[in-house]
Design a protein that fits this description.
The complex is a heterodimer of chains A (156) and B (286). Chain A has 156 residues and is α+β, with helices and mostly antiparallel strands. In chain A, 31% of the residues lie in helices and 16% in strands. In chain A, helix 2 packs across helix 5. The mean pLDDT of chain A is 95. Chain B is an alpha+beta fold and 286 residues long. Chain B is 34% helix and 26% strand. Chain B is built from 12 helices and 14 strands. In chain B, strand 12 (197-206) and strand 13 (209-218) form a beta hairpin. Chain B is globular, with a radius of gyration of 19 Å. The chains are: A alpha+beta (156), B alpha+beta (286). At the A-B interface, strand 4 and helix 3 of A face helix 2 and helix 6 of B.
Chain lengths: 156, 286
């Protein structure tokens, strides 16, 4: 077992973990943060995307021990005081989801994109989200939502 | 899926990492964990069963890009994301920056590293063929010091590099290619998929003609390859027709695999077509 200390959505956790434990399993099974889903388990779909030390990562392709000392933000950490973030609100308003399975990963990837490129074109949004698959929407409304969020003054 | 159990160590210096690998010795199967974007999927699918994983993710000396005369020295643990944005790489090794921007997707590029993708030696990976075309060198450190391995000697076989079990890839050196035109042409099924075939082209022009062309091939054999016959035929080409004729030789000497994505014959066809496109773009004659 290896000792880790990780800050997740603002709370610091100290845990003994097996080195083979994936970050996604740590988040879901140990911390009970099941807002981040497991999609493909092959690092293709991006459903499990979270933020680690300020950048998007696929949490099925990171070991919990690699996050030791780091700071993780999941979809559950986006809303503040029960208020959806501008990006979450845009997904809601533009109907950027149907089944919702890809949504946590889409939100985290879109947040990363907007941090690097606050006013992306539709094409840049599509490229920025290339690591996240949606099987329902055909992506149109997801692109619209990210564009809408990028027009807000409030950071995503 | 859950990876098999392994012992884990996280050294904080290259010396310590090399010692961990050397201590593992012949009896224990040790694997270096860089960004983990190739190794973790292999572990999850239970295609690899290392007894010891040496995580080199916290060794500051392995990250970053510096100039060394006519060469760029890139730390093995520099992430794809950082390579793409690095001003020195963009200025002096544009081919590397352009090709790295096509690797997988942003989340993978945040974790994946240049050294990791080279040491993994996957012929379907984009960067082995690029470093081969750049005439790069790889610096390995073992218990007895450092040695330099030319890119052409580094890729030994499918997923096999020239690194010894107790050696760590510490640096990638590429000669500055200022003044060379470049292009990486990647053919893949969907945005983040591996290249079915990829072509890395570098072109130096002189007096309206191609003075020298270098062509690296992704996924045209068990290792990345240079399209030597096409390179030779491209010398002196002065227009698009000449480039098209020379590119017909791009698949000579290759041994592409047949798999679910493509037959070997189709890959040979792609190598010719993509070489033509890549060289046209790199030469500005397109």
């Amino acid at each position: 077992m290896t000792h880790i200390s990780v800050k997740v959505d603002g709370t610091t956790y100290q845990d003994e973990v097996e080195p083979r434990l994936l970050l996604i399993h740590y988040l879901r099974d140990r911390l009970g943060l099941s807002g981040t889903p497991i999609g493909c388990d092959t690092s293709n779909c991006g459903a499990c995307t979270v933020e680690l030390d300020g950048v998007s990562v696929k949490s099925c392709s990171v070991l919990a021990v690699q996050a030791d000392g780091g700071e993780v933000t999941t979809v559950e950490g986006l809303a503040e005081d029960g208020e959806l973030s501008a990006l979450q609100r845009a997904f809601h308003e533009k109907h950027a989801l149907q089944c919702g399975y890809c949504t946590p990963g889409m939100l985290m990837a879109a947040r990363d994109l907007l941090r690097e490129n606050p006013h992306p074109s539709a094409d840049e949004i599509r490229h920025g989200l290339e690591g996240n698959l949606c099987r329902c929407t055909g992506y149109q409304n997801i692109v619209r939502a990210v564009q809408a969020a990028s027009e807000q003054e409030v950071p995503a | 899926m859950i990876p098999p159990a392994f012992d884990y160590t996280r050294p904080t210096s290259v010396d310590e990492a090399v010692r961990a690998l050397a201590d593992a010795g012949e009896g224990e199967d040790a694997k270096v964990l860089a960004g983990g974007q190739s190794l973790l999927p292999l572990l999850r699918l239970r295609l690899a069963f290392p007894e010891l994983v040496v995580d080199v993710g916290r060794i500051p000396e392995l990250r970053g890009v510096r100039e060394d005369g006519d060469t760029l020295a890139i730390g093995a643990m520099t992430t794809h994301h950082d390579v793409v944005r690095d001003p020195l790489v963009r200025r002096h090794a544009g081919l590397l920056a352009a090709a790295t921007a096509t690797v997988a997707d942003p989340a993978v590029r945040h974790r994946g590293t240049l050294g990791g993708s080279l040491a993994h030696a996957d012929p379907a990976g984009d960067l082995p063929a690029v470093v081969l075309a750049l005439n790069g060198e790889l610096i390995a450190q073992g218990p007895h010091g450092r040695r330099t391995i030319a890119a052409r000697d580094f890729f030994v076989d499918y997923l096999q590099s020239a690194l010894e079990p107790d050696e760590l890839l510490v640096e990638v050196r590429v000669p500055k290619s200022d003044g060379w035109g470049f292009h990486y042409e990647k053919f893949h099924r969907v945005a983040q998929a591996y290249a079915i075939v990829g072509v890395a082209a570098l072109v130096r022009r002189d007096d309206g003609r191609i003075a020298e062309a270098r062509v690296g091939l992704t996924n045209m054999g068990a290792t990345p390859l240079r399209a030597a016959a096409a390179e030779e035929a491209l010398a002196g080409a002065a227009d698009a027709q000449a480039i098209a004729r020379a590119s017909d030789a791009a698949a000579e000497g290759t041994r592409p695999a047949q798999d679910v994505s493509a037959s070997a014959e189709y890959r040979e066809h792609l190598a010719r077509v993509l070489t033509q496109r890549a060289v046209l773009a790199a030469s500005g004659m397109g």
